[in-house]
Amino acid sequence: MKRIDDRPNYQRSSEVVRAEMLRLAQQQKSGLATTFQDLLGNGSPPDETADEMISAIRQWRDTPSPRSLE
User: Fold this and answer.
1) Digit-coded pLDDT (tens) for 16-52
2) Distances from the Cα of 7 to the Cαs of 14, 17, 20, in angstroms?
3) pTM greater than 0.70
4) Alpha-carbon distance 18 to 22, whole Å?
5) CA 9, CA 6: separation in Å to the nearest integer?
6) Which of 50, 56, 19, 53 lies closest to 34 in space, CA to CA?
């Protein structure tokens, strides 16, 4: 994993750090949450029960991701 800056006690402007983070996200083909609402996401369906949610999470865990080592 590439770090933004490994030099100790090096302060950088937030604009430079943001630009580098956006560049890294593009290289990794991933999105970057820029607002709190982005972090919240869409949520689950309003009529989903706790058991259905737990079942979905277990199913997602068992599904290999494109970034997994399996």
Assistant:
1) 888 888 888 888 887 777 788 887 777 778 888 999 9
2) 16, 14, 15
3) no
4) 6
5) 9
6) 19
